From TrEMBL:
Belongs to the triosephosphate isomerase family. One of its GO terms (biological process) is glycerol catabolic process. It catalyses: D-glyceraldehyde 3-phosphate = dihydroxyacetone phosphate. Keywords: Cytoplasm, Gluconeogenesis, Glycolysis, Isomerase. GO terms for cellular component: cytosol. This is Triosephosphate isomerase. SUPFAM superfamilies: Triosephosphate isomerase (TIM) (SSF51351). Homodimer. It comes from Halomonas cerina. Involved in the gluconeogenesis. Catalyzes stereospecifically the conversion of dihydroxyacetone phosphate (DHAP) to D-glyceraldehyde-3-phosphate (G3P). Substrate binds at N9, W10, K11, G174, S213, G234, G235.
Length: 251
């Protein structure tokens, strides 16, 4: 059995006050969360210390949204995995489509960042997804499997076991246009089948999250799919009540 993971990606949103609000809301004794799920928020880097304090007593883990592949050096504006780990982060997103398209991260850069995260004992959440043009051209599987292979081919079997994968169709991110449960399940099944080519145990244990306009109203039917093991949530992870409902849908 795979432990579901509900992860919020705040992107360049939120505030110190929102970190506090989440910390308080999730540590209330009357809050009912399913047993045996993992919950994490990927906060903007300036909020890491606040997250460390506000989430310490509750069920929320936290992580970064990207990292540089070097530990330190003359890379103005960048953040290293060592720094994330120093603040108590346990996860880091790698290869989010916004990083790929807006900040020019190619497969080689994504791969180097995954390796850097693993070196720091962070759990990389490797993000994959096709654009609308690629889907319309019938290339969805080729694109996402290519993104998967670009990283997994470069890792050892022990390293592969330590990743989480998030399938986020680019056309569903921030658009309100969610993939149908069937569309998402089909891609997740293809990803798991490709992982089985590496190793059956790897495929069985790998957590595959869906992301792209997941919200309180559609989380349950997406999370009910056999190969969807959690969610990566943008907009709805900025609302305490919505995020709570999504977490409750994972039980
Ligand atoms: O990009 C996403 C999470 O990483 C998804 O964002 P939305 O949930 O806002 O569509």
């Amino acid at each position: 059995m795979r432990t579901p993971l509900i992860a919020g990606n705040w992107k360049m949103n939120g505030s110190l006050a929102l970190v506090e609000r989440f910390g308080e809301a999730f540590s209330q004794p009357e809050v009912r969360l399913p047993d045996g799920i993992d919950i994490a928020l990927m906060v903007p880097a300036p909020y890491l210390e606040a997250a460390r304090r506000a989430f310490s007593a509750g069920p929320l883990a936290f992580g970064g949204q990207t990292l540089h592949h070097e530990r330190h050096g003359a890379f103005t504006g960048e953040i290293s995995g060592a720094m994330l780990a120093e603040f108590g982060a346990t996860y880091v997103l790698v290869g989010h489509s916004e990083r790929r398209t807006l900040f020019g991260e190619d497969d080689a850069a994504v791969c180097a960042r995954v390796k850097a995260a693993l070196t720091e004992r962070l759990t990389p959440v490797l993000c994959l997804g096709e654009t609308l043009e690629e889907r319309d051209a019938g290339r969805t599987e080729a694109v996402v499997l290519g993104q998967l292979e670009a990283v997994f081919d470069a890792l050892s079997p022990e390293e592969r076991d330590r990743l989480v994968i998030a399938y986020e169709p680019v056309w569903a991110i921030g658009t309100g246009r969610t993939a149908t449960p069937e569309q998402a399940q089909a891609v997740h099944a293809a990803l798991r089948a490709r992982l089985a080519d590496y190793d059956a145990g790897l495929a069985e244990g790998m957590r595959l999250l869906y992301g792209g306009s997941m919200k309180a109203a559609n989380a349950a039917e997406l999370l009910a799919q056999p190969d969807i093991d959690g969610g990566l949530i943008g907009g709805a992870s900025l609302q305490v009540d919505d995020f709570l409902v999504i977490c409750q849908s994972a039980g």
